[in-house]
Specification:
The chain has 171 residues and is mainly alpha-helical. It has helices spanning 5-41, 48-52, 76-81, 92-102, 115-132, 139-168; strands at residues 54-59, 65-70, 82-83, 134-135. 63% of the residues lie in helices and 9% in strands. A hairpin with a 5-residue loop joins strand 1 and strand 2. Helix 4 crosses helix 5. The two termini are 27 Å apart.
Length: 171
């Protein structure tokens, strides 16, 4: 039996938890900066893609922390990476909804005189995407590239700050 071993084990577990919490907070600070740039670089038609870009942090029990910047929108990957010509045409339903949204208000891009006009325009857009593809906007890639040169040093500085805060609050 080693005296103080249980106390040491509790302290190590507490330290591991504090390091993980600090890493999660540091990553969140970095992720939010990347989100801001990704939103600035994202295509902005109706703002739905822009508004959906978020940061999500993940902390696991093994003290591993990571984060993801992205969008849950079904078309986000296509807008990021693009789409080659001659692939399966995009589904018509979302395109009809997009045309309808783009035609609303005095600033509407499309003038719809008849309900069928939205369908006609959507099929035209679908044909063009099928024939010519869509150029990728790479808004996430460019946002990350902007931050990449300083990520390691900024993470280290944030970790020092967050750990100092946590170690100063030791009970």
């Amino acid at each position: 039996r080693i005296d103080g071993l249980e106390h040491l084990q509790r302290n190590l577990a507490d330290l591991t938890g504090r390091v993980t919490e600090a890493a999660v907070e540091a990553l969140k600070g970095l992720g939010e900066g990347i989100v801001g740039d990704a939103k600035r670089l994202a295509p902005y038609n109706l703002g739905t893609l822009h508004d959906s870009i978020t940061y999500q942090g993940v902390a696991r029990a093994d003290a591993f922390a990571s984060g993801v910047v992205g969008s849950p929108k079904s078309y986000a990957a296509t807008m990021e990476a693009g789409r080659k010509p001659c692939e399966t045409p995009p589904p018509i339903g979302p395109l009809i909804a997009w045309v309808n949204q783009k035609s609303r208000g005095s600033r509407g891009v499309f003038q719809l005189d008849e309900p069928e006009d939205a369908i006609r325009i959507a099929y035209g857009v679908q044909r063009n995407i099928h024939k010519f593809g869509i150029k990728g906007r790479e808004f996430l890639k460019r946002a990350l590239a902007k931050h990449a040169p300083t990520l390691a040093s900024r993470f280290a500085a944030l970790m020092r700050q967050k750990l100092a805060e946590r170690m100063n609050s030791v009970p």
